[in-house]
Specification:
This protein has 439 residues and is of the alpha+beta class. It folds into two domains: 214 residues, Alpha-beta prism (UDP-n-acetylglucosamine1-carboxyvinyl-transferase, Chain), CATH 3.65.10.10; 213 residues, Enolpyruvate transferase domain (UDP-n-acetylglucosamine1-carboxyvinyl-transferase, Chain, Alpha-beta prism), CATH 3.65.10. 31% of the residues lie in helices and 25% in strands. The relative contact order is 0.15. It binds uridine-diphosphate-N-acetylglucosamine. Uridine-diphosphate-N-acetylglucosamine (UD1) binds next to helix 2, helix 6 and helix 7. Uridine-diphosphate-N-acetylglucosamine binds next to helix 2, helix 6 and helix 7.
């Protein structure tokens, strides 16, 4: 809401739009940046040691800036060289173990600094986190993990009604944690708390996402003893101290998938460089089911959709290695344009269909059947419209739809998109798209 207190910068943020016009099939090659979802926990992990850590291939994203600001708020020295894509962090002294409400509420993923702060200082107090408006997104599993490691966890509310949670334990101890859902954030948070625990910690039904593996690799470089990351059982043997380390962020599999769909939805031919095929297997499989030709070579994936009729397919989102929920909105936009009806089942998050109303403004005619099931009739000739990015991936879906729609699509609330896609306008323009950011 725009009020008297709204600053000019906030106003610009609110009023910025991306204008997309159909420029025909995209062709050429584009390069994927470092993963947003991997770099955020890597940065959080730098709080676990006194020495300097260097994170290479860090994408220039709003969320990375916010995470750098959060690290600084805890007393770390942080330098983000956006040209070189390097973040240097030295957390020699942690000056507070209480998170700044205004900062951490900007980004839900900020909660992954709680485990490191708790492990490093023996206490952490955090407001309940913000982020994309997808479902309830609780943090009960993160807290359950801290309790299993011997922390006392308490919830409280201040006079303004802001809820916060604190966890306290002089030194965390070993324990076993079974996650009811293989939560990515909870697995990462517990893993980071556990590396400095006294004893062995076992996380069962752990998340198996590549971002969990990347974090474990970095922590092991810092001197942690983690085994099993990438499987559903992770074993962490606590150590007393970690050292500084250098690490390169893995490529962003969701950005790769989004650009693969940009090729498909425009019936184009794109080669996506710095894309790891084994991280996007379900996207490749589903694209092939629709008739697109996908070829893998080294760390590049080529998607060719310029010949023949593309057909419908059904999608069911699942934790990794299943079809990623973060690709569901973009795939839905694509399926609106192919021949025949498709069913989409969202099992990871509730309330992750807010893009349906926006895609329908572009005449996609998608029907939400139940809270988690949607039918995409397919065969739609999309038309440009004024639409709103309700969250990060919904925003990406609307840009994709705009690339294939007749006329102009104006996407509002693009700050969501800028949280997770580095230079999306530039990257798409260079392969023939017509899109411009306007204030
Ligand atoms: C991460 C990703 C996000 C992706 C999601 C699922 C980052 C920064 N974000 O989010 O892009 O969409 O994984 O792949 O990496 N849950 C609980 N209790 C908890 C924690 C989670 O019930 O304490 C539930 C959530 O409500 C959701 C499911 O677990 O239904 C998965 O969420 P989770 O894996 O935790 O997602 P994030 O780590 O927040």
């Amino acid at each position: 809401m725009i009020g008297y207190g709204t600053k000019l910068r906030d106003l610009e943020k609110i009023l910025s739009i991306i204008s997309v016009k159909n420029a025909g099939p995209l062709s050429g090659s584009m390069t994927v940046s470092g993963s947003k979802n991997a770099v955020l926990p890597l940065l959080a992990a730098t709080l676990l040691c006194e020495e300097e850590c260097i994170i290479n291939e860090a994408p220039d994203l709003k969320d990375v800036e916010i995470m750098c600001a959060i690290l600084r708020s805890f007393g770390a020295e942080v330098c983000f060289d956006k040209q070189e894509k390097i973040v240097r962090v030295k957390a020699a002294n942690i000056t507070t173990n209480e998170a700044e409400t205004e900062l951490v509420c900007k980004m839900r993923a900020s909660i992954v600094t709680m485990g490191p702060i708790l492990a490093r200082t023996g206490r952490a107090k955090f407001p309940l986190p913000g982020g994309c408006a997808i479902g309830d997104r609780p943090i009960d599993l993160h807290l359950k993990g801290f309790v299993a490691l011997g922390a006392d966890v308490e919830m409280s509310e201040d006079e303004t009604g802001t809820g916060s949670v604190s966890a306290e334990a002089k030194r965390l101890s070993g324990g076993e944690i079974y996650l009811d859902t293989p939560s990515v954030g909870a697995t990462q948070n517990i893993m980071m708390a556990a590396v400095l625990a006294d004893g062995v910690v076992i996380i069962e039904n752990a998340a198996q996402e590549p971002e969990v593996v990347d974090l474990a690799n970095f922590l092991n470089k810092m001197g942690a003893k983690i085994k099993g990351a990438g499987t559903d059982i992770i074993k962490i043997e606590g150590v007393t101290k970690l050292r500084g380390a250098v690490h390169g962020v893995i490529p962003d599999r969701i950005e790769a998938g989004t650009y693969m769909l940009a090729a498909a939805i425009t019936r184009g031919d794109l080669t996506i460089e710095n894309a790891l095929a084994h991280h996007v297997k379900p996207v490749i499989a589903k694209l092939r089911e629709t008739g697109a030709i996908v070829t893998e070579s080294g760390d590049a994936i080529r998607v060719k959709a310029d010949k023949g009729i593309l057909r419908s397919t059904d999608i069911k989102t699942l934790p990794y290695p299943g079809f990623p929920t973060d690709m569901q909105p973009q795939f839905m936009a694509y399926l609106a344009t192919v021949s025949g009806p498709s069913t989409i089942l969202e099992t990871v998050f509730e309330n992750r269909f807010m893009h349906i109303a926006e895609l329908n403004k572009m005449r996609a005619h998608i029907m939400q059947k139940e809270e988690r099931r949607a039918i995409v009739p397919g065969g739609s000739s999309l038309v440009g419209a004024d639409v709103t990015a309700t969250d990060l991936r919904a925003g990406a879906a609307l840009i994709l739809a705009g690339l294939a729609a007749k006329g102009e699509t104006r996407v509002a609330d693009i700050y969501h998109i800028e949280r997770g896609y580095e230079d999306i306008c530039g990257k798409l323009r260079r392969v023939g798209a017509d899109l411009t950011k306007k204030q």
